[in-house]
């Protein structure tokens, strides 16, 4: 698959439909695949943190979760592929193939296990699911981790926020040898649990989902500023630097 490098991070230049097909193929493979969904905030962080950049570049699939990435790819990335858009495909495939879903939530996050489980039972009845919590600034207890590994999830969705979720996934990948997909999903599950309403489709289509999030969660302002101001400035500076030395 073709990749586009933005601020040192390789992003797969594929459509949403191609991403869904790739994910479906992963579910029938015997290898653990790691999926990341970098948005502008990710790339700003990776620009400042070489270790985080390395993790993103080690992923098997890096999907562009942000209209800014699509825009600054110069037309090479065809469309945005968010984690929230990929989750329905994953759940549907697991349901149809009697697969198992594991979920790790932050104990101080918006989503609660009971609400999320109830929503999953409504949208994907019969899906075998195990949800555990991770306390802030603490490692998951050995018992909880053992319960999760013994469950042998086909897909493990890690909703700890970035960069914690990516760091956790790569640190524990070897403990889930039979898991097909490990994916950091940030707050995407908040939409499924009912804890947060997603932006209307027309706002997503014109690249204004960030504005909806800011209205709903004003505390996100520093992160939004990174995405809509600092990210473009860094990309423009990088392009100017490359052009200067061509």
Automatic annotation (TrEMBL):
Cited InterPro entries: WecG_TagA_CpsF (IPR004629)
Record-linked Pfam families: Glyco_tran_WecG
CDD domains per record: Glyco_transf_WecG_TagA (cd06533)
Top-level division of the source organism's lineage: Bacteria
Signal peptide: none
Keywords per UniProt: Glycosyltransferase, Transferase
Gene Ontology molecular function: any one: hexosyltransferase activity
PANTHER family reported for this sequence: PTHR34136, UDP-N-ACETYL-D-MANNOSAMINURONIC ACID TRANSFERASE (PTHR34136:SF1)
Name under which the protein is recorded: Glycosyltransferase
The species this protein was found in: Candidatus Kerfeldbacteria bacterium RIFCSPHIGHO2_12_FULL_48_17
């Amino acid at each position: 698959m073709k990749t586009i490098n933005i601020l040192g991070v390789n992003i797969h230049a594929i459509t949403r439909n191609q991403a869904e097909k790739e994910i479906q193929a992963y579910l029938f493979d015997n290898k653990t695949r790691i999926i990341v969904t970098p948005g502008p905030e990710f790339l700003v962080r990776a620009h400042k943190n070489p270790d985080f950049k390395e993790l993103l570049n080690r992923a098997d699939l890096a999907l562009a979760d942000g209209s800014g990435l699509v825009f600054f790819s110069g037309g090479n990335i065809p469309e945005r592929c968010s984690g929230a858009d990929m989750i329905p495909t994953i759940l549907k495939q697991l349901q149809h193939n009697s697969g198992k879903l594991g979920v790790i939530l932050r104990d101080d996050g918006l989503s609660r296990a009971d609400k999320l489980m109830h929503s999953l039972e409504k949208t994907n009845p019969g899906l075998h699911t195990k949800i555990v919590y991770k306390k802030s600034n603490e490692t998951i207890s050995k018992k909880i981790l053992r319960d999760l590994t013994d469950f042998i999830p086909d897909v493990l969705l890690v909703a700890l926020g970035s960069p914690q979720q990516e760091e956790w996934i790569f640190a524990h990948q070897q403990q889930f040898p039979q898991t097909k997909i490990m994916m950091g999903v940030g707050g995407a599950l908040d939409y499924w649990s009912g804890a947060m309403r997603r932006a209307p489709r027309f706002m997503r289509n014109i690249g204004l989902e960030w504005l909806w999030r800011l209205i709903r969660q004003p505390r996100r302002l520093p992160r939004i500023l990174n995405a809509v101001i600092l990210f473009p400035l860094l990309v423009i500076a990088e392009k100017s630097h490359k052009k200067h030395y061509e």
